[in-house]
Design goal:
Layout: H1 3-18, H2 39-42, H3 45-53, H4 70-84
Helix pairs in contact: 1-3, 1-4
Length: about 90
């Protein structure tokens, strides 16, 4: 499996385990105002990425404020990780 595919799979698995579930219609509260995966939770994935890559990534690869959906999380973070590693996606 290519490195980029391993990164995408790791990020997809992380999203499935860590993101907040979709909010049912009409169920609005203060807790529901945060994105499904905020930046504080997303930074935890760096430990797994560091292990996969064998190098430490800067926390700046994580988008401030977090991610609204899995596609955004996987696509944007994969691109930033690959750029940081000096490889093209």
């Amino acid at each position: 499996m290519a490195l980029v595919d391993e990164i995408r799979q790791l990020l997809t698995d992380f999203w499935e385990e860590q993101s907040l579930e979709a909010i049912p219609d009409g169920d609005i509260s203060v807790d529901n105002l945060a994105p499904p995966l905020d930046s504080m939770a997303a930074v935890e994935v760096l430990v797994m990425l560091d292990k996969l890559l064998g190098k430490e990534l800067p926390s700046s690869v994580i988008k401030p404020g977090g991610y609204e959906n899995r596609e955004e999380f996987v696509t944007e973070l994969t691109e930033k990780v690959m750029q940081t590693c000096g490889e093209l996606v």
